[in-house]
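User: Reviewer 2 asked us to show a designed sequence for the structure in our supplementary figure. I'm pasting the structure tokens here. Could you produce the per-position amino acids so we can include them in the response letter?
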């Protein structure tokens, strides 16, 4: 009987969270993310490791930024060619970016011999920092978003991207640059779906808005539509991830610079 009560309670919590999510009644009382009173939006650079990272992990942030008139640029540091489908995955990223309202010319995909997709492939942090710095200067970037030290899934390429950006921030002094990292979550929170909205909100209460922000996905249909463009990766376990992962519903970003 006790287990039945627990299961029913979890189902009720899940449904209530989902209803709150779709009703759009989740509002953060903190200052708006990247809103400093400018007449025009910011130039924001999203740095990822592989095509599909943007759709699997960052769509709440992407939707938030594009709906508020910020210019979002994507720098993808590899073609995702671990299985020999790099050219296909490049085109899939452009298709997904169109769904996410990011113009083709604002998406750059690298194919450097020392930045190839794969577990166990060590990426040079200095090399990453150099490519990111080039993009910052070329696009007049004033804000940057990327992975944290764990990289959400623990993938070594994700982790190296985060470390490379941190390396750049440590050395970069030409002009002010605001940077944020996507906070990795525990397995429980990662697969708690809309329930994590409440957990993220609670977590954010202990931080100043200048250092941590929780962004709700304001257009969840885009998440599924964008990820579906990555047909070469749209297999059963990724479908489950997008269906049940909290990253579909909310992104928690921590300021790193």
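Assistant: Here is a per-position design you can include in the supplement:
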């Amino acid at each position: 009987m006790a287990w039945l009560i627990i299961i029913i309670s979890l189902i009720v919590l899940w449904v209530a969270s989902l209803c709150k999510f779709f009703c759009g009644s989740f509002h953060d009382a903190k200052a708006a993310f990247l809103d400093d009173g400018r007449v025009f939006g910011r130039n924001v650079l999203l740095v990822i490791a592989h095509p599909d990272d943007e759709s699997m992990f960052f769509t709440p942030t992407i939707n938030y930024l594009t709906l508020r008139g910020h210019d979002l640029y994507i720098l993808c540091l590899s073609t995702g060619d671990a299985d020999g489908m790099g050219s296909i995955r490049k085109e899939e990223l452009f298709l997904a970016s169109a769904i996410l309202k990011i113009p083709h010319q604002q998406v750059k995909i690298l194919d450097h011999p020392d930045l190839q997709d794969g577990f166990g492939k060590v990426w040079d942090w200095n090399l990453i920092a150099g490519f990111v710095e080039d993009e910052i200067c070329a696009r007049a970037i004033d804000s940057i978003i990327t992975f944290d030290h764990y990289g959400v899934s623990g993938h070594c390429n994700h982790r190296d991207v985060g470390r490379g950006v941190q390396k750049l921030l440590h050395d970069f002094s030409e002009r002010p640059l605001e940077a944020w990292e996507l906070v990795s979550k525990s397995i429980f929170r990662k697969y708690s779906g809309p329930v994590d909205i409440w957990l993220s909100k609670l977590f954010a209460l202990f931080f100043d808005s200048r250092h941590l922000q929780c962004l709700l996905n304001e257009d969840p249909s885009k998440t599924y539509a964008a990820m579906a463009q990555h047909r070469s990766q749209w297999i059963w376990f990724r479908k489950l991830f997008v269906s049940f992962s909290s990253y579909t519903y909310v992104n928690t970003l921590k300021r790193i610079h």
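For the response letter, you might also mention the following. The chain is about 45% helix and 15% strand. The first helix runs from residue 2 to 23.
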